Amino acid sequence: MRKKLILLFSLCHSLCAFAQKTSDTEALKIKLNESGSRYFQVTFLNQAWFRFNENNPGTLVNGSPQNQSFDIGLRRTRMQLFGQITDRTFLYFQFGQNNFNAQYNANGNRKIAPFFHDALGEYRLSSGNQLKIGGGLSIISGISRFSQPSIGTIMTMDVPVFAQTTVDQIDQFSRKLSIYARGQVGQWDYRFILSDPFPITSNGQTAPAISSNFANFSQKGHSLQQQGYLIYQFFDHENHTTPYMTGTYLGSKKIVNIGIGGAFQPNAMWLKSAQGDTLYQDMKHLAVESFVDIPLPKHAALSAYLGYFNTNYGTNYLRYNGIMNPGTSSNLSASNSISGQGSIYGNSLPMFGTGAVVYTQIGYLLPSIRADLANRWMPYLAATLAQYDRLGNHATHTFNVGINYFIQGHKSKLSLDYQNRPTYQINQGELGSGNRMSSLSLQFQLFI
């Protein structure tokens, strides 16, 4: 492990030396009229990860037991195409792929095509941002700002994915076919969404059979999903060009917000009763949160977030997930591992479930004699404190500590992140906590 850590830090130093030679670049933007109020813009983003991971017990990598792993991958590779086509009409596309590493599709063809994440059109009914109506394939949603994050501006190395509650289950990487209304009225920022979810049987995985012990997404019937999100902004208004929500403004705005959001889908889940009848249950999520992102003296800045999430997927729902999982399978059996949805190997943890989650993060952009964002540092801490019904008294607490090195703001940055996560085991039919596992990741982000 020591040699791998030295290798990772050496790589970080080399990338810093290379990236300091890059310079700020203007946006790739075409004016469609003389004033520039009508325009079309293209952006590109690449997030490369270099990661050392302590694998969960029983992990196999291509059939071989492996307690530790080192992998290289592309967490996100994206391009955006968007613009104000007329005075009131906005067009937005996003194209790319995610979680591409050596195990991206270990059992099939590695040349899996990128896909459209977003494709939407939006019409502004008011003279300002008071009311916009849009529709298409979009991440716009209720619940939380982290349910629709601007991934190019996130402060921590990755977002709290649990807030994207149905990711790749009844959506396409958190995107749904939706119609929505959004806007800003006074100090209020709102969005209301009606979504047409995809069937769980279309997510590319074998859907679990209906169970008498815990709910899963129903394979029969179809219902629309209703979502809403409301923010009160005490000072500056948040960005409102796209539905995505900024991770950190790095001191360029004074943001102090409180928000509340939710999602509801009737009969989204199913399970068997004791008598063998099929029971349908509603999916209901609610969150309250506060977000602070403010400039401080000496060109420093503070970014902080605290949110409470009540997630209800039905009786005892639990799903494991591992971000860009380095493992491929497990040699554990049903007698010594948790049954249910998701893969328990690699870096997986119980990420989604019926229960309650508190998520918090705080970061501090260190002072500088210069006002720009070149060669700046921002350490951060984050904690996900979850209590899921399926795990009884065993909490799922995950902690991250890291630091960003902004070579040129979010356009070019390095992020080093250490994560500590729980594991669980079953001994003689009893669920117990296993050893905690760690990972150390380096990200190199380029965004233009």
UniProtKB/TrEMBL annotation:
Signal peptide bounds: 1-19
Keywords: Signal
Organism domain of life: Bacteria
Keyword Signal on entry: yes
The protein's name in its UniProt record: Porin
Species per Swiss-Prot/TrEMBL record: Aquirufa rosea
